[in-house]
Amino acid sequence: MLSREICQQVLAAAVGTGADYAELFAENTVQHAINMIASKVDTVKDTVIAGVGIRVFKGLRSVSASTVDTSLEGLLRCAHQAADALGEGDAPMQIVLQERLFGDIHPIKIVPQSVSNAQKVEILKEGYFAAKEYDPAISQVTGTIMDVDHNILIATSEGLYTQDRQIRTRLAISAIAEKDGQTQTGSFNPGARMGLELFDSVIPSQVGIRAAKQAVTMVNAGYCPAGVMPVAIDNGFGGVIFHEACGHSLEASSVAYGRSQFTGKLGQKIANEKVTAIDDGTIPNAWGSINMDDEGTPAKRNVLIEKGVLKTYMVDKFNGRRMGMESTGNARRQSYAYTTTSRMTNTFIAPGTDCNEDIIASMEYGLYAKEMGGGSVNPVTGEFNFTVSEGYMVRNGEICEPVRGASLVGKGSQVIQDIDMVGSQLDMGQGMCGSSSGSIPTNVGQPMIRVRSITVGGR
């Protein structure tokens, strides 16, 4: 996208008022999406995002600027604006860039841009109509097939010059079931850091059926009783509980400023000994995987919690300065227009040794949360509230009738102490995580877990 020579000139301008670090982040991203509703293609949308972000550090001060003018004149203007905002000083730094190749552990077999819209529509239709025809109670279906080709270049005053290409594909089907004037929604949204070969393993019709089945099950369900009880949370997207209730509190953007329930607790036991939690950006072709983060640090497998003990945080360069810690490869941003900060990649509770059957059998009375939905969390206190998209009552160690309207209410630091059983079958779910540096693709995951006691909200 930009030559080393141009990047060197721009970085030299960025450190012109005494910055001790400068970074250039350039991107050219093509996003493609096809939407279906009312049994027909509704929209075909192409979006191109192109620009450059420049960031400078001086001690614990940081300034960011961005521009869509990628001419040398425009880039120098942007660099001077960042430098001037940082303040006056000398610029003794000499910048010599050397190219680094990180390699790619995420092979792409079928680049989405090489596939016609007609072929993508056929994939979308298969999922859409499988949901629509699943049951007469299905009143509405929406579907989207999307792909992203995200090309980035990073150059820094430390001499780094590198590039990466990130291709992701996703199919999303949502179904609404109606009965006696009431409606319930089901959805399934699998994705991966892959091309159209994703659909060699992800069968579109099964995506549609799963979404529709959830909607029909829930529209026929009674309301969940409220109370404090044990809850079994299934694998896959059930990992959103850890992601939201604990994961954000382990990001340096919260920890560095004391705005985290886990600040100052490295080496301490913060969870049940059955809990080992990992953030791993190196899983081949996983939705949240990266070859390098958005500061040019190689992706890593970071064990955050090991057998209940807090081992590390997720750290970016700037917040690492405040914490006295090296980057863990977790610096991420939605685009050049956002300022990079610490974020998750693929975050999950590691497999344990308990059997799913034993987890359910251990519950005399409780809730089985088969699918989790959205929610909210306060990273300072860890207090959260999450909806259960598909839930079932458990009585005498058996899964019984479906219930709707359930929610899980608690505190992150407490819930990880109350996880007392962890299954062996790890699965992951895909999502988009929003924070100060924008919306980024992240995986959440876990085996089935049991929380021995948690507040369940119901009708």
Structure description:
The protein has helices at about 5-15, 70-85, 115-130, 205-220, 240-245, 250-255, 315-325, 355-360, 410-415, and strands spanning about 20-35, 40-60, 60-65, 100, 140-155, 160-180, 180-190, 190, 220-225, 225-235, 275-280, 300-305, 310, 330, 340, 345-350, 365-375, 385-395, 400-405, 405-410, 420, 425-435, 440-445, 450-455. It is α+β, with helices and mostly antiparallel strands. Strands 1, 2, 3, 4, 5, 6, 7 and 8 form an eight-stranded mixed sheet that branches.
Search tags:
single chain; 459 residues; alpha+beta; 8-stranded mixed β-sheet; 6-stranded mixed β-sheet; 9 helices; 24 strands; 19% helix; 42% strand
State the helix count.
9
Structure classification: alpha+beta
Low-confidence runs of at least 5 consecutive residues? none
Average per-residue pLDDT, rounded, comes to 96
Give the % helix.
Answer: 10-25%
Taken from the alpha-carbon principal axes, the silhouette is: globular
Tell me the distance between the termini: 56 Å
Largest sheet: 8 strands, mixed
Number of DSSP-assigned strands: 24
Beta-strand portion reads: 35-45%
Rg computed from alpha carbons, rounded to a whole number of angstroms: 24 Å
